[in-house]
Structures are given as structure tokens and as C-alpha cells.
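I'll show a typical protein example:
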Amino acid sequence: MRCCVYFEDPHTIPVIQNVEATFALNRFSLDGTDRKIVQTVEKGELVDGKVFLDRFGYHLPLSELSTGSKAGIVTHHQTDCLVDLRGCGINAKSAILAFCQRGNILMKYPSCGVIDYADGTKIDVFLEDRHFVRMGDLMYYLSDGRILEHCH
């Protein structure tokens, strides 16, 4: 399974526009992917299914995670839906692209690029009929490659 990226709603699967509500209404079995997302976006650590340790060392309920972390967790677990990331920051989008090996995301074209959080590990991203397994290739496509290909 792969993480599919859309810049426009394909109108073929349900869209989750309110990540906060979806996160609040569901209980997810958190795993290693969720831990990586929280570590990257929050600079924190998941303690269990109810609490995380924030970057300042405070134990907080999961409801206090950023919208970006919640979006990553929802993307990873709600694979039959399209998760709208248009309200998330570049760090959350980059973490989701690096760590989510499944799911569907809707986002604006990242005019400022993305951050390589994959650190050389394989990614699994499908975008505009292309399959990316290296973050560097995806970053190039989003910055220069896509523009160059559409000019021909």
C-alpha cells in the first residue's frame, strides 16, 4: 500500500476536512509510524494511547497534539479516506510524506518544497502517476522536475 498525494479532490473517496473532529471521535492503535510522526512534528514522544510527552517534558493528553500530528495519525489509520492537509504546516506534510506508507492526502502544491525527514529510508508515495521511493526524488519532482516536465 502507498501514500497517495492529490493536489485536487478526485471526488472518488470520502474527504476528511476536519482532522481534529476525526481524531477526537476515533481511537487508534498507535504504532511505530505514529511515534515517528509525533517525534518529528512535536519533538515529543508517545507515552501510551492517551498521553504524550511534549518537547518541554510535560505529559499531555493526545487531544493536545498539533493538528499536523493528528493529521498524520489519521492518514496512517483512515486509509479509505482522503485527509485534507491544507491546514497543516510544512513540517507535518513532510513527516507524513516521509513516514506514512499508506493513506491518501490532499494538499496544496508545496511552493516552498518539503523537508527530508526520511533520512535515507524508503518512502512509498504515489503522485501524478509516479511512484517515489526516495524522498530526494520526490523533493526534486516537487521543486524542478514537475515544472520541467510540464513545459514540454
Notes: Residues 3-151 form one domain. The longest strand covers residues 3-6. The beta strands are 3-6, 15-16, 45-46, 51-53, 59-61, 82-84, 103-106, 125-127, 130-132.
